[in-house]
Amino acid sequence: MTHAPLYIDYLNALDVEALALTDAEIIAAVEAGLSAQGRKQTEIEPRVHLMPKAGADGHFNVLRGAFRAPIERAGVKVIGDFVDNYKLGLPSEMGLLLLMDPMTGVPTAIVDGSHLTDMRTGAITAIGAKYLASKNSRVLGHIGARGTAYWNVRLLDSLFDFDEIRVHSRRPESREAFGAKLSADLGKKIVVTEDWQSCVEGADIVVEASRLNEPAPMLKTSWIKPGAFVVPYGTMSAVELSLTDIMSKLVVDDWGQCKGGPFGSLRAHVEAGKLSEETLHAEMGEIVAGLKPGREREDETILFWHRGLSLSDIALGHFMLEKAKTMGLGQRLRYA
C-alpha cells in the first residue's frame, strides 16, 4: 500500500524574524498553551540534559510534550545552552523544534528553536506577572542579558509600561549593549546598574536570569520588597536558601520537571523540602485556566519558578506556522 507524498514545513531563523510577531501574539499563543496544560489537555515529560563533551561549557536540553486540544501537535525540542558562544558571535541557545502528528507520529514541521525559545521564555515570565504581580508594579529589576532577557523585559513592559527598568549582567559590555537595545526598542530610559543590589532592591518585579558557572547566593532575600513578584530561573541557583521563606505563594510551570534533575534555581530548595507538593501553591497553567487563584492581595510576595515548557514551544511554534502560511513564508521539504 502506498501513501501520498509527505512534506515537512520548515521555518528557519530568517523566516521567524520575518513573521514579525507582535508582543500580544506571542503572549496569547503561550497563554493558550498554559491554559490547555491547566485543563489537562496535554502530556508533558520532564526535560532531560545531554552533556556532549568533557570540557564543553554547555549542554543540550531535550524537551518533549503533546497537545490533545485545542491543537493536535506533538513535539520535541533540542536546544543547546553554551555560555561561551558569545566569543564566536553566536547566541548561547540554539536548536530546533520538531513537530509531529500525535496520532501517527508523522513529522509535520521543523521550526528554528533559537528565537522561539527566547520569545516563549519571555512570554512565560510576562504571563506569570500578569496573574501574580501587583497591577501597580512600576519598577522592574532584571539580572542577566542573554537572549531570553530581551523578551522578558520587552513583554513585561508591554503589560506594565514601567516607570523604571533596571538591568544588570556580569560583563559591562554586555549590560551596556543590552540597555542600549532596550532603550531604543522600548523608547524609554533604561538604568544599567553595576551590581545586583542596586538592580533588584525594592523593585516590584524581579527577574533573575543569570549565567553562573556554579551555584552562588548572589540575590539576597533581604533585598526583596514585601509584595514583590520574583522570577528566578537561572540554570545555576543564584538565590539564598531563605528566599522561599518570605513567599506567600510558590508557583512553578510544571512540578514534574521542577522536582528532579541536577539544574535549576531552586534545586537546593526542593532538596531541603522548602519547595514540595505541600508548599507548592499551583502550576501556572492551573492559574491561567482559572482553577487556582493568582495574586489575591497586594501584600502577597510571590515567587514563580519556570524551567521552560515543551508545551510553550509547541504552542508558539504552531502559531508561527499558521501565521507563516498566511504570509507565504517558509519552505516545504519532501519527507517521504
From TrEMBL:
Q: Which residues cross the membrane?
A: none
Q: Which GO CC terms are listed, alphabetically? A: cytoplasm
The record's annotation in Pfam families points to: OCD_Mu_crystall
What domain of life does the native source organism fall in?
A: Bacteria
What's this protein's family per the entry?
Belongs to the ornithine cyclodeaminase/mu-crystallin family.
Give the protein name, as stated in the record. Ornithine cyclodeaminase
Origin species, per record, is: Bosea lupini
Source taxonomy: Bacteria, Pseudomonadati, Pseudomonadota, Alphaproteobacteria, Hyphomicrobiales
